[in-house]
Amino acid sequence: MVFAFTARAAAAEAYEDDETFVAGVAEQENGGGRELTFMCCLHEPDEQDIALGMDSYCLVTADQGTVYGGVKEVRLKDRVLRVVVDSSNLEALGLDDAEIEVTLDVDDERIERLREGLRRILAYGRPSDRPAILAL
């Protein structure tokens, strides 16, 4: 069964102090409820990142389930964000299904910022971790 929810919040922005770029969606306008957050560093991966397996973007769920890489597909069309993760990451993410479908109940400007943010984040790091299908 697809993990699905309606997001009333969507954002993408750089956090210079944390050296991180973040894009995400959340069920509630205040960022609560079900959520998906994609992140990458503002700098290229260094030797320590590579040694720790942190040389890719990461995906975080509402329960703080986190994986680096592992997204197979991302599509954003008709106000629906569809994400497919590698099934080997389900336990780490706290998900029962590899398919995630988020209906975006936000304005067009936020959707465009999310689209641009996801393009940036999902191109970060190891090429082998980039989604095979990226339709943004």
UniProtKB/TrEMBL annotation:
Annotated organism of origin: Actinomadura luteofluorescens
Listed name of the protein: Immunity protein 10
Lineage: superkingdom: Bacteria
Lineage, highest ranks first: Bacteria, Bacillati, Actinomycetota, Actinomycetes, Streptosporangiales
